[in-house]
Amino acid sequence: MKVLNLQCAGMHTFEGWFGSEEDYQSQRERGLVACPMCANTEVRKLPSAPRLNLGAVEPRPVKIAAHEEPVVTPGGGGSSSAPSNAPVSPTAETVASSLAQVHPEAAEMVQEAWMKMVKHVIANTEDVGQNFAEEARKMHYGESEERNIRGQASMEETNDLLEEGIDVLPLPVPDALKGGLQ
After folding, report:
1. Does residue 82 fall inside a structural domain?
2. Other CB atoms within 10 A of residue 13 CB
3. Same structural domain for residues 158 and 77?
4. 102 inside domain
5. CA pair distance 74, 85, nearest whole angstrom
6. Contact present, 118 and 150 (Cβ < 8 Å)
7. Do 112 and 61 touch, CB atoms closer than 8 A?
8. Are 16 and 4 within 8 A, CB to CB?
9. Residues 6+ away with beta carbon under 8 Å from 136
10. Is pTM beyond 0.70 here?
11. In which order are the strands placed within the sheet that holds 43-45?
């Protein structure tokens, strides 16, 4: 088994396991090796030293491609009435990509912190799916019980919620985390 350190064109680093060098090259040529953060298939190997397992080390989180899911938390602290043309905050993914050009270890730390935060949100919220905007409004106007929810909403729906004073946060959630981890 070969464990390779890989990097995509977006400067995200990740690890790949392959049966052999030929297996890696074959999968890469067929577009099967993709960055787990951004799904970019333009991947290259990074230099790596042989790994010696001399003791147990805490496993690192998997870095996975993301999609946006707004999240609302009751009593989110103050009103959030951002105008619809408000600038969007950079995601951990874009920050990590920028950092990777200057300091690869810092980019990896940002990716790990982002994954930890996403896992925490998923573990502590109810998935309401496509009914996110409707459910957030019901909670805001006292028509349903307040609870932490997550789900999908278009950018227009998200902006409408913010204009109504409903605290929401667009959050990139990797597809692999939506179904649970193995």
Report:
1. yes
2. 19
3. yes
4. yes
5. 24
6. no
7. yes
8. yes
9. 70, 72, 149, 161, 166, 168
10. no
11. 13-18, 2-8, 43-45
